Amino acid sequence: MKPFLSKNFLLTTSIARTLYWDYAAKQPIIDYHCHIDPRDIYEDRRFEDLAQLWLGGDHYKWRLLRANGVEEKYVTGDADGWEKFRRFAAVLPKAIGNPMVHWCHLELKNYFGWEGFLCEETAREVWELCNEKLRDDPDFTARGFILRSNVEMIGTTDDPCDSLEWHEKLAADESFPVKVCPTFRPDKVLQLNKPGFAAYIQKLSETVGYPLNTVEDVKRALSDRIAYFAGHGCRAADHGLDYVSFRRLPEIGLNLGFQHAMSGGEITVEGAEAWQTELLLHCAGEYARRGMVMQLHYSCLRNPNTRAFTELGPDTGFDCITLTDSGGALAKLLDELEKTDSLPRTILYSLNPGDNAFLDTLIGSFQGPGIPGKLQHGSAWWFNDNKAGMTEQLTSLANQGLLGNFIGMLTDSRSFLSYARHEYFRRILCNLLGGWAENGEYPNDPALLGSLVEDICYKNAKRYFNL
Fold first, then answer.
1. Euclidean distance between CA atoms 302 and 362, whole angstroms
2. Within a 10 A sphere around the Cβ of 288, how many other Cβ atoms?
3. pTM exceeds cut of 0.90
4. Of 25, 232, 377, 434, which is most buried with the most CB atoms under 10 A?
5. Contacts for 169-175: CB closer than 8 Å, 24+ residues apart
6. What are residue 321's phi and psi, to 5 degrees?
7. Which among 148, 349, 166 has a CA at the least distance from the CA of 241?
8. What digits encode the pLDDT tens for the residues 306-325?
9. Any idea what the Cα angle at residue 117 is, between residues 111 and 121, rounded to 5°?
10. What is the pLDDT of residues 379-398, one digit of tens each?
């Protein structure tokens, strides 16, 4: 019987172990999509206790607590940090099969040197050990966690109206060697039918310094902000879409819908889809012209629990996977961009794992000369970044395309300890490749396989994001 979370955790063959320790484990991390606050990095934030570091903003942990019937005051409420942590520790042993068990213990082991099993009985020991280090050790800060994780680049997620002042300060700080790049996230501009649209357009108008009265004005504003972001080292943009649509309307129809939205009128589905399509096409062209990567995330059902949304607001852990009919529209979107030579390097993520084969075959229809892996099937996202989800995504990509060109893992996280997810991904990757070699499905050549591992874990992303 193997011990829990041993040195060769998830590495079931000798070749898998060679691939991980001789190749994967040594590679720096390019975390090209996350939600870390750049201010926390610049100010080298210290955390008051383990609850603030571990439980604040972590939707995965919140969902487990709620699934065990824990009162909300111990989840997102104002309860004492120890009480929140104690309840999470009591829940974790029930989460067998959930990646949180692995992530949590990798984080405790890698950063705090604790190798037990977290439960209610060990909670106090972990709490005191970790809090002592957070309080007294000068390296247990935001920057310290990043540097200890061998991170080379971080791609934050930033609003078009952001001044990017913290990115400016980080870029000027020669004492911190990690590249922190902003990512352009213009969701609020594209969501004509969402609450707060008019107020946001007014904010954007104030940012660019001129009125936004037509769709052409909004396009100009987006172009100006994309240029501003590019001037601050932006390598990528990201769009969070409920579903992908493709609907065209003449300019007069777009302006009519825009004026209706600005005056608080009701927006038709058709009008909202046409607005999203028009601006997404415009932004994509700007990304292509400036050499930026476009990321599209879709098939998430936001806020299905009305009571929870009313009480707690968005992004509090109540979203879920949804089924969307986005395939045809996504193909039309890419085709329209391809026809006008304005298709940027693009990463596609669907929250529905049933879309894996579709995405892998779709990207194969738009690859071409000049850029290996120009279109990417993004890593297993959110509810799929577990052992089964990662294995399914990797296998599907290998079946239908070139796994060797894959740009690998990201954290998509707000936590400074989430770099352990890169280790988790790398172990799963090495075990998958090692298994194929062990079964005679690929040459058992460590150098050949190791080169693929280095590319997927690090080198492909470094090339893809022009680092």
1. 25
2. 19
3. yes
4. 377
5. 169/42, 170/38, 170/41, 170/42, 171/232, 171/233, 173/42
6. -70, 145
7. 349
8. 999 999 999 899 999 999 89
9. 115
10. 999 999 999 999 999 999 99
